[in-house]
Amino acid sequence: MKRMDKREREIESGELSIWFFCGILMLAYGIVLVATGLVEFHHPPPNELLLPWLESLHPTLWWGLALTVFGGFYSTRFRPGRR
Amino acid sequence: MQAAAALFLLNQQLTKLAPVDLLILVLYFVLVVFIGFYAKGKANTSEDFFLAGREMTAWIAGLSFVSANLGSLELMGWAGAAYQYGILAAHWYWIGAIPAMLFLGIVMMPFYYISKTHSVPGYLQLRFGEGARAVSGVSFAVMTILMSGVNMYAMALVMKTVLGWNISFSIWVGAATVALYVMLGGLRSAIINEVLQFVLIWAGAAMIPILGLIEAGGWTKLKAQIAMNLGTGDYTHMWSTLGSFKDNPMGVHWTGIVFGLGFVISFGYWTTDFLVVQRVLSANNLRAAKMAPVIGAAFKMAVPFIVIVPGLLALAVLKNPDGSIMHLVPESMAAATGQHSYNEVLPLMLIRYCGPGLLGLGITALVAGFMSGMAGNVSAFSTVWTYDLYGAFINKKASDKHYVAMGRWSTVIGMLVSIGTAYLVMNAASIMDYVQALFSFFIAPLFGTVILGMLWKRATHAGGFWGLLTGTVASVSMFLWVQGQPSALRYIAMSPNAKPMAEDLYRALWSWIICVVVTVAVSLMTRPVPTEQLAGLVYGVTPIPHDGSVTLWQKPIFWAVVVIVIFFILNLIFW
Fold first, then answer.
1. What is the pLDDT of residue B37?
2. Which of B191, B194, B154 lies closest to B170 in space, CA to CA?
3. For residues B266 and B436, what is the distance between their CA atoms, to the nearest angstrom?
4. Which residues of B touch A18 (CB under 8 A)?
5. Which residues pair with B56 in a beta bridge?
6. Closest of B328, B356, B90, B318 to residue B226, by C-alpha
């Protein structure tokens, strides 16, 4: 059993893990959304003007932040070469 | 299935992308192409190319397994179904998936895995001989390539109608990208992209139910609002309205949902459709192969949150510019009146809640879903063509290198045929309905053949072949009967109140029963297969090796029980 777990870890944390691909893409998207969300603080998008309750929630910013944390964790945890 | 409805006819451009949205889309394409080149270095042998080297962990195989069925065609079709039929649509995600996925993992996977078959037709060859493999292989190859084309056209149509993009541009860019990364990396490339797509779908679509429930004031207020808007509470109950065909919006009966959907269609799709089973066959050991469908089932239970809830929310919150409730209509009416159709529900909700950035993420998730659907079909086609048709009937003794080359070429040729199909569908949209129906012809009888083959050692080669053929012919005949004479539905569904949704359920049930009866009858009349030839293929004559799990937490059966308990609780909550 120990051998199997070790093998699984090697595959998941190998040269470029599938989780690393997921992490790096979400990190990139998170950063883009955070930047967009900050801009939207002063320039709300058209859909938020139509739905005023939405404007105060700043969904782009908070979702961007969540993706940045998720992506950052996976990019670091499964970065290339890490064992 | 309902995915057929996802080929919708939007009649005006809904929105346009901001530069930040385009950036998000371009980032996805760049990563996908990079993955193709990266995976190429790991796809040298046929085992690498067609089964990703059989080295995927349970989590990766499990997410890929569930993601292969989470294409955009399904997402938009079922969100539209939720608007049209209410929460009943969630049956296709719960009883229509969870028990079958768990059954695959716990009961069937050991046989697929230890027989070391490369495909489901390959298993049929081992158990029932070349005839059954030929029927299954040819039908599967044709269907996957047609489905890939349907996905391609649907993506192009969504891009045209949501964003105003040229249809040919979308078809060729999508096809070229998918062909490139599947040809280079084979199944490994497809699996990486499917896992990526699963994460993307959640990242892109989760904001719709979250913000929608905030707007509606929570689940209880949403139910009350729907009941007020529609004048009935039937749209938010899963079981309490299924006592009669005429008591629910779908026009179905609980027997159809439990036996037709929950048993035959679901078990047929999740346990014998090679497109999804191939993902699990890539697992790196028996325990991972058993755990993968269990993990997939756990995630599958959550999918209604991003598919069914948006459809229900639209019933409560979607409004016209003048503040009145927006009424979506069937596609045929939408094309004539200029209203929005049921199947536009997901894009409409996306546009409602998502501004620049989030909108790009949602659109990218849809594109990823379409491309993943094409890649899944093409990679499965390439495997079945190379192993079960080319390698079995045309060139049996080629080198491993030759088969890998054939896999790559068949990917390219498969994509070209898919492009042809996409243009064919563009000129005759009804073809898509037939392509979807064709899938349902084979799934139910195939399940009858495979399950008898695995669990009943007396089933013979002739029994398997004739059962599969008769069940398929019966399914096609019932379909043509109802097409030619719609009133025939009352005989197939056994009720004059049955609506078209009931047809699929009962047609599947009847064709499965016919397949099983014929297989049993012919088997009993023919000579049994010697027991020694059944080792590794049939329950009772196959010693199942221990899967290596030691503690309770490592045992697939433990997690299967956890998942099934949650499944029952969810059904009771939304009874």
1. 86
2. B154
3. 15
4. 60, 191-192, 195-196
5. B283
6. B318
pLDDT (tens digit per residue) in B144-188: 888 888 878 888 877 877 778 888 888 888 888 888 888 888 888
Q: pTM above 0.95?
A: no
- What's the CATH fold of domain B2-573? Sodium/glucose cotransporter (1.20.1730)
Give the dihedral sign, CA B347/B353/B359/B365.
Answer: negative
Instruction: Single out the residue of B307, B309, B93 nearest to residue B214, CA to CA.
Output: B309
**Which pair of structure tokens corresponds to residue B135?**
């029927």
* Bridge partner list, B341: B329
| Amino acid making up residue A63 | W
**Largest interatomic CA distance in chain A:** 58
Do B31 and A1 make contact, defined as CB atoms within 8 angstroms?
Answer: no
What integer pLDDT is reported at residue B8 of this predicted model?
41
Q: How far is CA A27 from the centre of its chain?
A: 4
Identify the residue with better confidence: B70 or B568: B568
Q: Which residue has the tokens 């679901």?
A: B266
By the CB < 8 Å criterion, does B549 face chain A?
yes
The answer, yes or no, to whether residue B423 has pLDDT greater than 60, is yes
Mapping DSSP onto H, E and C, the string for B6-71 reads: HCCCCCCCCCCCCHHHHHHHHHHHHHHHHHHHHHHCCCCCHHHHHHHHHCECHHHHHHHHHHCCCC
**Residue B5: band (very low, low, confident or very high) from pLDDT cuts 50, 70, 90:** very low
Task: Report the C-alpha gap between B282 and B195 in whole angstroms.
Answer: 14
Model confidence pLDDT, tens digit, residues B239-298: 988 888 888 888 888 988 998 888 888 898 888 888 888 888 888 888 999 999 999 999
Contact B60/A at CB under 8 A: yes
Tell me which residue has tokens 């120990």. A2
Domain ranges of chain B: 2-573
Query: Does residue B42 surpass a pLDDT of 80?
Result: no
| Residue A16 to residue A22: CA distance in whole angstroms | 11
Question: Chain A interface residues facing chain B, Cβ-Cβ under 8 Å?
Answer: 1, 4, 7-8, 11-12, 16, 18, 21-22, 24-26, 28-29, 32-33, 36-37, 40, 44-48, 51, 53-54, 57, 59-60, 63-64, 67
**Around Cβ B542, how many Cβ atoms within 10 Å?**
17
Q: Which of A78, A19, A28 is nearest to B30 (CA)?
A: A28
The domain ranges of chain A are 2-77
**Min distance B42 CA to chain A CA atoms (Å):** 11
- Residue B160: per-residue pLDDT: 79
- B543, with CB counted inside 10 A (0-12, 13-18, 19+), is exposed
Cβ atoms of B288 and B57 closer than 8 Å: yes
pLDDT score, position B10: 43
Q: Looking at chain B from residue 129 to 148, which residues have their Cβ under 8 Å from any Cβ of chain A?
A: none
Let me know how long chain A is.
83
Q: What is the DSSP string of B155-177?
A: HHHHIIIII---HHHHHHHHHHH
Contacts of B429 (CB under 8 A, 6+ apart): B7, B9
Neighbouring CB atoms inside 10 A of B356's CB total 21
